[in-house]
From TrEMBL:
Stated name of the protein: Enoyl-[acyl-carrier-protein] reductase, mitochondrial
Family, per entry: Belongs to the zinc-containing alcohol dehydrogenase family. Quinone oxidoreductase subfamily.
Domain Enoyl reductase (ER): from-to ranges: 56-375
UniProt source species: Handroanthus impetiginosus
PANTHER family attached to this UniProt entry: ENOYL-[ACYL-CARRIER-PROTEIN] REDUCTASE, MITOCHONDRIAL
GO biological process, one term: fatty acid biosynthetic process
Length: 377
């Protein structure tokens, strides 16, 4: 009987990690009635998680489920999750359209912050009560307890606001890398971007300001745009234009004392990308990191021939797999220090885990324009 129980224990644990099909109910019964008691000193607590058994519309395929305990191996840390955001890339993974995604069934989420609940016997440098984030980010953060090898956890300063700790690894790091990796910018230079109200956009404004770099920001025409302009200027944006303002032949006449930017950022595509290109100086570069409009980027022949513009792309996950990613944790610590000093902030809304369906609807845009949704466990 002991052998049978161990077999079903393994199946249950593989399911918790998202590596196999869920075990049948009778195996979980044996786990709880026998094996769990036998190994309770080295097991995590049961976990509540957002699970999807197949890829598809997130509001259809995502279900909140109870997952069984898993073993805490000697090199593992069991982390009680505190908060985790709903990012567009999380939604794309669930839909099955993201280039890299975990096999189903899987637990949603890709970044977050948690508190160390327990550690394995060989773990050094982490203790119960420490705050940690997965670095590099990892799938499966939409659950109450996560068990992973200690090397995958990065300890952070507990004085960091929880919602910033939960969201620092994807969007702010994207903004930082794009500012540093494509053009050698110096104090007094300028950048231009569309999608300025996005989290990355807000981070670009502030990280540029810290370096003395001016920013030109483009937002879409919508109700309340004057209020949005003021909000972005308070963050440090030098100029904020709605798209209709830029339907002029010479947009550079609108810049006053701001130099022509050598670097632009596009997360929208379509006409919004063309507006970024209009601002760039000769030899400038536009970096695309998203395509919210789902429209292609169209570039005039003259932009290539006479302005010698360059079009580049940026994908954080690919960057993290490179050798440069060894510096990732130092960059995260730097960004977190800016959040603690108040030099980096962005719009977020904390949502209790038991209200996950509402948070998901907001993230999907069902309830109009909403700030970043962060699940609080």
């Amino acid at each position: 009987m002991a052998t049978v129980r161990l077999v079903h224990l393994k199946a249950a644990l593989q399911w918790h990690g998202g590596t196999s099909s869920p075990p049948p109910p009778w195996s979980l019964f044996r786990l709880r009635s026998g094996a769990f008691r036998a190994f309770s000193s080295t097991m995590s607590p049961p976990s509540k998680a957002v699970v999807y058994d197949e890829q598809g519309p997130p509001d259809t395929v995502c279900k909140v489920k109870e997952l069984p305990p898993v073993p805490i191996k000697e090199q593992d840390a069991c982390v009680r999750m505190l908060a985790s955001p709903i990012n567009p890339s999380d939604i794309n993974r669930i839909e099955g359209v993201y280039p890299v995604r975990p096999p189903v069934p899987a637990v949603g989420g890709y970044e977050g912050v948690g508190e160390v609940h327990a550690v394995g016997s060989a773990v050094k440098g982490l203790s119960p009560g420490d705050w940690v984030i997965p670095s590099p980010p990892t799938s499966g953060t939409w659950q109450t307890y996560v068990v992973k090898e200690q090397s995958l956890w990065h300890r952070i300063d507990k004085s960091t606001p929880m919602e910033y700790a939960a969201t620092i690894t994807v969007n702010p790091l994207t903004a930082l890398r794009m500012l540093e990796d494509f053009v050698d910018l110096r104090s007094g230079d300028a950048v231009v971007q569309n999608g300025a109200t996005s989290m990355v956009g807000q981070c670009i404004i502030q990280l540029a300001r810290v370096r003395g770099i001016r920013s030109i920001n483009i937002i879409r025409d919508r109700a309340g745009s004057d209020e949005v302009k003021q909000t972005l200027k308070k963050l440090g944006g030098d100029e904020v234009f709605i798209e209709s303002q830029l339907e002029v032949k010479n947009v550079k006449s609108l810049l006053a004392d701001i130099p022509e930017p050598a670097l632009g950022f596009n997360c929208v595509g379509g006409n919004a990308a063309s507006l970024v290109l209009k601002f760039l100086k000769r030899g400038g570069t536009m970096v695309t990191y998203g395509g919210m409009s789902k429209k292609p980027i169209t570039v005039s022949t003259s932009s290539f021939i006479f302005k010698d513009l360059s079009l580049r792309g940026f994908w954080l996950q690919k960057w993290m797999s490179s050798e440069k990613a060894k510096e990732c944790r130092e960059m995260i610590d730097y960004l977190l220090s800016l959040t603690r000093s108040g030099e980096l902030k962005y719009d977020m809304e904390l949502c209790p885990f038991d209200q996950f369906p509402t948070a998901l609807d907001k993230a999907l845009g069902k309830l109009g324009s909403q700030p970043k949704q962060v699940i609080k466990f």
